[in-house]
Amino acid sequence: MSRLEMRAIEKGFSGVPILRKVDLTVEGGEVHALLGENGAGKSTLMKTLTGIYRADSGEILLDGVPQNFHSILDSRKAGINIIHQELNLFSNLSIEENLLIGYEQPFRTAVGWIRSRKLREQTRELLQLVGLSRSPETPVSELGIGERQLVEIAKALQSDVRFLIMDEPTAALTDQETRRLFQMIDDLKRRGVGIIYISHRLEELFAIADRVTVLRDGMTVGTYCMREVEEDVLVERMVGRSVENRYPRSESQPGDVILELDHIQTRRLHKPISLTVRTGEIVGIGGMMGAGRTEVARAIAGIDRLLGGTMRLKGQSVQFRSPREALEHGVALVTEDRKDDGLILPFAVRLNLALPTLAERQRLGFVEQQRERAFAEEWIRRLSIRVQDADQPVVNLSGGNQQKVVFAKWLAQDPQLLVLDEPTRGVDVGAKHDIYQLMNEMKARGKGILMISSDLPELLGMSDRVYVMRDGAVVGQLMGSNMDQEVFMALVARSQEVES
Amino acid sequence: MSWFRRYRLGPLLGLVLLVLILSITSQQFLTVSNLLDVLLQTSVNALLAIGMTFVILTAGIDLSVGSTLALTSALAAEWMVGGTNPWLAGIAALCIGGVAGAFNGVLVAYARLAPFIVTLGTMTLFRGLTEIYTNGQPIFNLPNSFNGLGNGSILKIPVPVWITIVMFFIAWAVLSRTVAGRRIYAIGGNEKVAYLAGVRAKRYLVAVYVVSGILAALAGLILTSRLATAEPTAGNGYELDAITAVVLGGTSLFGGEGTLVGTIIGALILGVIDNGLNLLNVSSFYQDAVKGLVILIAIMLDRKKSDGR
């Protein structure tokens, strides 16, 4: 069995230490989880391991032999491969073309032509190995995210891989796809491949990982056997303090109906949707990806226009033609993809925070700079967003802090109804907790919250009621004693049986 | 070095360097009359570049400014020759420039066409309209009262320079100090985020092309007055000089990043190079090559700096 060791790795950027003496040992044939909050140094450590960065000090040993990786090609040659969180596939190319890129050598003739038949055969074999029943010529753009993940794995398997790093592989997968992935991981394990598995979903680590190394502030806190460690202990090690209750739902007495969807339809929602949200209530929407959850959010927030049915806000019928009109009525949407839809990444935190409420701090059309700065600093403090100053570009913040900026920018609007689409995706435990507290705070102040989430424990843990969606329709509602994983899964799964 | 990067001093440094080199190599360069001449020569391009900055900040481009300039000049000149009051003709020309810009803007914002293609089309269209209108002939015999716009001076400083300074300050204030300016940057940074934040992105997109069109018309009036002629070929290729000035000034062609101060410095760099090469008696064949090289060097220096984070 092979063995990978990273010893006393140190790495800093322009004088700021990111990794301060990190140790990590991974055996072949084990799934080794890497756990830590955003900014703890996981990505930097993996980039150091794969030769994208060079460590300032410390050493990397493979089977006891010191390695010196200058690029990702070096580490790949040594048998270490990485699947990034943002899948690095060319969606305009086919599966086989994607497999070819970066691995051209065996498939090129002396003059540089591509041996297409050989490529196709090998692609077919690899696809079979990862269990993806697609033709090699299929354009990647036609694949779902789960399928793309499998293509990435196939790509990694092309070279003789001994250690495979997976960064948040399930972040965008459905439960079914996740199970498929876990089978794949088991196969790899049996073949003696060591897997470094990065994920924020603790439940998942207990299901798949053998050992876990916890990082905090660029240091190794410890390595534990998954079978012998408690979830709370891991969270405490990772956050550095004990987190009492991971889903701190507050009890409250819901008031009047604030939002009522009465058989609404849009060009993306073909089946009529009805639901209600009351003041002082967190209502969840669960279901598989593609079940129509985001489409409901789009309709409420004025992105998609209503083609049928009625939407009532505090009993009054409304028709939003744009997000602007929704905002004017106190309806704000925290979008699913903060990098594309939530933030202007290169812009300063202050500018991002100020954008929806610019008009509130102006005189004769001029921005009141000092008020804006005070405004930004106040929100940074209220949500304890970790930044150097208000002028730091958001692109440099960790995922959790970026998400807090998105939240702050909408909270500053003081919305009556807040629609959240995957509010904690890719956010670490500490920041998650802060976000839950914010939701509770809003709830206590009599706001309505509609939360879409694929994170089942979160959905059931934070919501007062949950609507379950499937195939573009609401198929059930969970409340009270009904709020249970099994009831939920039964509602979601029924469709799959019918389909298959 | 962070303040250097923060305030993007690269272009300014380049300008200072050029001025130093020319001050040493040419005795005529560092004289009041020559420097005023540089400013005068730069003013037309600077006006176009100010409008272009608005457009490029939204991740757009306006290739039609040269043709808009020609079209509006021809119309104004013909009206003046026909006896219309120069002020009235001028204001009408500015309005036509605005309409031409609105045409671009509507196609970009509402028909969702690529700015490059739209303005490539209108560039040719407006030029064609100019040629039809003028029958390909220059228009002379403009009224004397129109002479002052391009050739007059106030406090020894040429009128076009005054106009450029005023326009610069207005545009600078709008872009860097107003809510509208913020929104223009936001649209360029990420149009979807801006839209979701309640910004009427389409209206702003139309507006930036209108600004560009109006400034093109203003530049056209100045040019026509200076030459006392409206040429149907006027402004040919000016769009590229304007874009060059904007890019030299550090504005990103992908939108959302850049300053008007940078644009003015960019325009001045181009003006100083032209002036300097003339003073040094460099043949016109070499002038373009040298200019091209200086632009490439400037952009490379700037790129290095912005990547160094």
UniProtKB/TrEMBL annotation, chain A:
It is found in: Cell membrane. This is Monosaccharide ABC transporter ATP-binding protein (CUT2 family). The lineage of its organism: Bacteria, Bacillati, Bacillota, Bacilli, Bacillales. Coiled coil: none annotated. InterPro entries: AAA+_ATPase, ABC_carbohydrate_import_ATPase, ABC_transporter-like_ATP-bd, ABC_transporter-like_CS, P-loop_NTPase. SMART domains: AAA. GO terms for cellular component: plasma membrane. It comes from Alicyclobacillus sacchari. One of its GO terms (molecular function) is ATP hydrolysis activity. Residues 4-242, 252-496 form the ABC transporter domain.
UniProtKB/TrEMBL annotation, chain B:
It is found in: Cell membrane. Its main location: membrane. The chain crosses the membrane at residues 50-75, 87-107, 154-175, 204-224, 245-273, 285-301. It is a multi-pass membrane protein. The keyword Protease does not apply. Keywords: Cell membrane, Membrane, Transmembrane, Transmembrane helix. GO terms for cellular component: plasma membrane. One of its GO terms (molecular function) is transmembrane transporter activity. This is Ribose ABC transporter membrane protein. It comes from Alicyclobacillus sacchari.
